[in-house]
TrEMBL record:
It comes from Leucocoprinus birnbaumii. Signal peptide: none annotated. GO terms for cellular component: endoplasmic reticulum. Keywords: Endoplasmic reticulum, Fatty acid biosynthesis, Fatty acid metabolism, Lipid biosynthesis, Lipid metabolism, Membrane, NADP, Oxidoreductase, Transmembrane, Transmembrane helix. Belongs to the short-chain dehydrogenases/reductases (SDR) family. InterPro entries: NAD(P)-bd_dom_sf, Sc_DH/Rdtase_CS, SDR_fam. This is Very-long-chain 3-oxoacyl-CoA reductase. Pathway: Lipid metabolism; fatty acid biosynthesis. GO terms for biological process: fatty acid elongation. The chain crosses the membrane at residues 20-44.
Amino acid sequence: MKLTTRVLPDKGHVINLYPLYITVLGLGAFTVLRILHQLFCVLLQTFLLPGTSLTNFGSHEGAWAVVTGCTDGIGKEFARQLGKAGFNLLLVARDVERLSSTAQEIELMYGIKTHIHTINFGKASVNEYTELTETLERHDIGVLVNNVGTSWRFSRFTETPREKISDMIQINVNATVQVTHAVLPGMVKRKRGLVLNVGSFSGAFPIPMLAAYSSTKAFLANFTSALAEEVRSDNVMVEYLNAYYVVTKLSGIRRPSVFIPTTKIYVQSVLSKIGLPCGSAYSGRLNASSPYWPHALLDLMLTFFCKVYPSAAMVMISGTTQPGLELGGVMGGKAELDCWCLTPEIKTHNEMQ
Ligand SMILES: NC(=O)c1ccc[n+]([C@@H]2O[C@H](COP(=O)([O-])OP(=O)(O)OC[C@H]3O[C@@H](n4cnc5c(N)ncnc54)[C@H](OP(=O)(O)O)[C@@H]3O)[C@@H](O)[C@H]2O)c1
């Protein structure tokens, strides 16, 4: 008997299985081709295609770049590299001495103009936001980097101090919303602008032990997707940066590795891939980008993986553990986190908080 036919035992007649085999083969081939096509597009964007040039946003033409939280870490590096690219800099953070020394350092290095504005986003009043808005409105802003952010150690939500939760909402969410609201009308009027919202992998999936932090970043991802579509026709780009770990004070990681770059390497990859989603291309998060290549591959892998095992994706991103913490989900029963050891990096992160 041929492989494509089968005799039904009770009825004794032959059925043709050929259409079934063809359908299964067709679906299998379609799935494989789809995955290969997505992989090809991500590799092309991440390794070959150049991003939108910063000259489109007014570099070397007197335009200003605003960076929030720019006295350390990723923000300071954005300030350096945007100064190097020929933007004047409006630097915003809470410590006037650190702001002045950052401004001086970059002015001397690249011969650009700087202006500093001091504000503590954790406690900023309506009046302080009005003052900041007035400062922002006086400048021709080409680029805004909503970088300021804070986190708290890996801990249960109920064990996270209330003031830390409030800080995360005020600094990670409210500061971005308020500063963007102040800057965007000018960009829309000038028909030119770039807004980069510094997000996190932890915003892509609900992360236990980082419930508040990961939710603030999920807000930013959604906010960016919606806003980007609103202003696209005004020639203003809004992009969410899906960042995995980077060596900074906030991450508590001091030694770089392939997956954990220095701020210099991370920011270089961001500024060279503006407008390209790279690893976020098929994540379902519109206008998000994972431009640093190991982060891009990780994002792509999680995109495929978490559709099947969302619980496991949560665990992979946080790499966290808490004896007794259990996750339900499509894995069927429960995925226990006990088996995951705290990595040295995460131990350091917790120790620093
Ligand atoms: N590092 C990572 O692994 C990682 C991963 C994913 C996403 N991110 C995101 O990247 C962004 C930057 O993080 P980072 O690692 O560069 O952090 P960082 O090294 O701690 O630097 C944070 C900057 O923000 C300023 N800042 C903090 N609280 C502030 C406040 N209340 N008001 C005004 N300024 C304030 C800090 O100023 P002071 O010097 O005065 O504290 C500093 O300049 C954050 O949005 C973070 O969520 C980081």
